[in-house]
Description:
The chain is α/β, with parallel strands linked by helices. It has a single domain (11-256), classed as P-loop containing nucleotide triphosphate hydrolases (Rossmann fold, 3-Layer(aba) Sandwich). The chain has 8 helices and 9 strands. The chain has helices at 62-72, 96-101, 123-132, 151-162, 180-196, 208-211, 235-245, 247-256, and strands spanning 16-21, 44-46, 51-55, 104-108, 115-119, 167-172, 199-204, 217-222, 225-228. The strands form 2 sheets. A 6-stranded mixed sheet has the order 5-6-7-3-8-9, sandwiched between helices. A hairpin with a 2-residue loop joins strand 8 (217-222) and strand 9 (225-228). One of its GO terms (cellular component) is plasma membrane.
Amino acid sequence: MASKRNRTINLPAPYLKRVWLEPSRITDRAAYPFCLPLLRDDFELSFDRAITIIVGENGTGKSTLLEGIAVLAGYDEAGGGKGYMPVDHSDALEKMGGSLSTALRASWLPKITNGWFFRAESFFSIARYLDKAALDDPFGPPPPDFLSHSHGEGFLRFFEERCQRQGIFIFDEPESALSPARQMEFLKLMRMMEVSGISQIIMATHSPMLMAYPGATLLRLSKYGLEPVTVEQTDHYKVMREFCDDPAGFVEAAIAE
């Protein structure tokens, strides 16, 4: 019989309903990440759909925000699932997501701690950790030949197995591990997760292909905060469209500046 902690809860995603900043928990407003324009005293992010996609330029705080949410969900800010610590934090500087999480509050219905936090730069360290450690993993161990696959293929196989369970899945720029063709496969994986009704996805991306997932909440993060946006309104789409209209001319103009 399945253990209580792994039993499927008969409620649809999203499970994380809202995160907000508690200013009284901030000890130093001038310190990073609390100095980010995003993190004003009235910062709040609500989730009303199973899939939420956040876009924005580097440095706006997307990854830090996802790390903070991941810690609230019980994951390591370096990536992984609940109870995994794929990297050694003993000699490292304090992770920004962990720092942010101390000042964040969250509303859940219900609290879900199954799932995974994916960061492309830590993917193989997590895979090796899982492959070597004797863990009580509700999803089971990775395939014996897991690390022999290409980065993109291994990534997709990894989540195809895990996304079949109820959980909250956080993706930080998954396209960095995926070719355009693999991104199309990832879109299919997202659809499978959405149709199941038991998976919540929170993702930050620079890929217009992933931003275009139908029915997702798409938010643009800038110095003014988070705002709803369409794919066509994003700078990522506009630049990509200019490139596709005239690749040679686009590149010539870019390097001439």
